[in-house]
From TrEMBL, chain B:
SMART domains: AAA. It is found in: Cell inner membrane. Residues 10-255 form the ABC transporter domain. GO terms for cellular component: plasma membrane. Keywords: ATP-binding, Nucleotide-binding, Transport. Its main location: membrane. GO terms for biological process: peptide transport; transmembrane transport. InterPro entries: AAA+_ATPase, ABC_transp_ATP-bind, ABC_transporter-like_ATP-bd, ABC_transporter-like_CS, Oligopep_ABC_C, P-loop_NTPase. This is Peptide ABC transporter ATP-binding protein.
Length: 279, 282
């Protein structure tokens, strides 16, 4: 059975110029132990649809769906207590902008230890030890020193790794990773992806990975969803997607890899659509 | 004589960090003596390990932070922001796109105001001209005039990144320091932004210092590449040299760790995973 099932999810924002549909009828499901990658245009509703799952959208957003369930629990109509039991524990998220999602007023150590004490019931002492273990696992250098640092005293990629450590601290059953390696060089990116895949195999964790990096998709995903302007364009297993992308947008996206630059210009999706005569 | 827009000599940066409740405060040298020079109209790309000091160096070059040691020269003049605060001419000449666009945008300021403010402070353009320029810039980075009245939190990560780029370009800077400017962009929008930067460089001889961990982007945009590791420059060469014959082991490791989109490799991985599953399920 699928762990997370979403049917016909729509998110509309009230804006000064009227209502704007950021997500329009998305279906999605993920099984335990599965890696689902979501790729697609910037602004196509990837983050918004996952924030809807987490219940973290602002009041200006209207969320509707025919179904949105996690392990049989209705995420749309649940009590506050039930929500607190699931969100942040069984489902956690690595947010796209790590520096902005850490609290600037507390040390990074305090922030992860708080999660460990509240969610995992660890003592202060045990939480400190576990925090250092997690920081080591995500490759933060000198973890016992860095634990005392405030977010602004860490590099972009170090903050991103703190965020990852916090998200895996409670052994979630579903991890939603929104561009989790954007600030990491390829060597550390590899270490992090290996770690996520290991957790996923070991605990049967399901992973939804939003990324624009086709290399990351190629090296981690089982299945891939391609999004464009709030709609799902294509869904395929990873091999079929790279071997024989069926939707023109997917083909265009793959053609825009910088490796494919002709002369001194990079191809964009609209160049490609122009060539293929697609609108 | 070569026309260098920016030159750094022996640049260092020290940070003071407390050691927590019982630890002693200590100094950490995040940048350990970097030399570089960028000619007008050229692009220097900086790559390197996360935490190796790239943003720290970028903040020095963009006149945001004062270095602990070494000298920085902009268009032939030594700049020491600790002694002389840069005037607004110099400030508008040197612009920076920060790694964390959210943190660098004022949450209470509408995007239109974000883009027109530098024009208001530094030019004599009328309100209407300022608005037209800002709207045109939004279109150039793949956004639209309909975004003019929105606040920063109403955008996606990649859209905010493009707003930060648009803001930095509003004043036609001479030197633009870009810290992971396309890291949140899908390939197509990334292509559009990189093409825009290339066009502006051709037209106005803009000089870029471009930090990126994406080697395919670096290969496209860079003239020269500086590789950092643990605060030091481990290798510096022309793009072609670095890509055809990387010398330092760290540079070689970077190339080796780059993920591949090769179909055969994917087929092998998928098969391996299936086998693992079958084993685990039995
Ligand atoms: N609070 C908001 N009010 C109005 N519009 C919003 C708000 N938040 C997001 N949007 C819009 O919703 C759309 C989808 O945003 P979302 O963040 O999901 O994009 P994304 O696919 O994650 O893009 P990226 O790859 O750039 O992160 C965008 O067009 C964005 O401008
Ligand atoms: N304000 C600060 N106080 C103390 N240490 C700092 C401060 N800012 C950065 N550092 C440390 O200096 C080192 C270099 O940081 P910097 O942000 O320059 O790295 P980076 O190369 O940009 O990394 P990334 O690719 O992850 O963004 C890191 O170890 C970081 O923790
Ligand atoms: Mg997003
Ligand atoms: Mg940085």
């Amino acid at each position: 059975m699928a762990l997370l099932t979403i049917r016909n999810l729509t998110v509309a924002f009230a804006t000064a110029s009227g209502s704007f549909r950021a997500v329009d009828g998305i279906d999605l499901s993920v099984d335990p132990r599965e890696v689902l990658a979501i790729v697609g245009e910037s602004g196509s509703g990837k983050s918004v649809s996952m924030l809807a799952v987490m219940g973290l959208l602002p009041d200006t957003a209207t969320v509707t769906a025919d179904e949105m369930t996690f392990d049989g629990h209705d995420l749309l109509h649940m009590t506050g207590a039930e929500r607190r039991r699931i969100i942040g524990r069984e489902i956690t998220m690595i947010f796209q902008e790590p520096i902005a999602s850490l609290n600037p007023s507390f040390t990074v150590g305090f922030q992860i230890e708080e999660v460990l004490r509240l969610n995992m019931g660890l003592s202060r002492h045990a939480a400190r030890a576990r925090a250092i273990e997690l920081f080591t696992a995500v490759g933060i250098p000198e973890p016992a020193v860095k634990i005392h640092a405030y977010p602004h005293q860490m590099s972009g990629g170090q903050c991103q790794r703190v965020m990852i450590a916090i998200a895996i601290a409670s052994n979630p059953r579903l991890l939603i990773a929104d561009e989790p390696t954007t600030a990491l060089d390829v060597t550390i990116q590899k270490q992090i992806l290996d770690l996520l895949m290991e957790l996923q195999e070991r605990h049967g964790m399901a992973l939804i990975m939003i990324t624009h990096d086709m290399g990351v998709v190629a090296e981690t995903a089982d299945r891939v969803i391609v999004q464009y302007k709030g709609h799902k364009m294509e869904e395929a297993d990873v091999l079929s997607l790279f071997e024989a992308p069926s939707h023109p947008y997917t083909r265009a996206l793959l053609a825009a890899l910088p490796e494919n630059a002709t002369g001194d210009r990079l191809p964009t999706v609209s160049d490609f659509f122009g060539q293929e005569g697609v609108q | 004589m070569t026309d260098y827009v920016v030159e750094g000599k022996g640049l260092t940066q020290d940070y003071y960090v407390s050691g927590g409740m019982f630890g002693k405060a200590k100094t950490v040298r995040a940048v350990k003596g970097i030399d570089f020079a960028v000619e007008r109209g050229k692009t220097l790309a900086i790559v390197g390990e996360s935490g190796s000091g790239k943003s720290t160096l970028a903040r020095i070059v963009a006149l945001i932070d004062h270095q602990s040691g070494g000298t920085l020269t902009i268009e032939g003049h030594e700049v020491d922001i600790a002694r002389h605060k840069p005037d607004h001419v110099l400030r508008s000449k040197v612009q920076m796109v920060f790694q964390n666009p959210y943190g660098s945008l004022n949450p209470r300021q509408k995007v239109g105001d974000v883009l027109t403010e530098p024009l208001l402070l530094n030019t004599k353009l009328s309100a209407r001209e300022r608005r037209e320029k800002a709207e045109a810039m939004l279109v150039k980075v793949g956004l639209g005039a309909e975004h003019y009245n929105r606040y920063p939190h109403m955008f996606s990560g990649g859209q905010r990144q493009r707003i930060a780029i648009a803001r930095a370009l509003m004043l036609n800077p001479t030197l633009l320091v870009l810290d992971e400017p396309v890291s949140a962009l899908d390939l197509s929008v990334q292509a559009q932004v990189l093409n825009l930067l290339a066009d502006l460089q051709d037209e106005f001889s803009l000089t870029y210092v471009f930090i990126s961990h994406d080697l395919s982007v670096v290969r496209y945009i860079a003239d020269d590449v500086l590789v950092m590791n643990k605060g030091e420059c481990v290798e510096q060469a022309s793009r072609d040299e670095i890509f055809s014959a990387p010398k330092h082991p760290y540079t070689q490791m970077l190339f080796a760790a780059t993920p591949v989109t090769d179909v055969e490799a994917i087929r092998a991985r998928v098969a391996h995973r299936k086998a693992l599953r079958a084993g685990a399920g039995a």
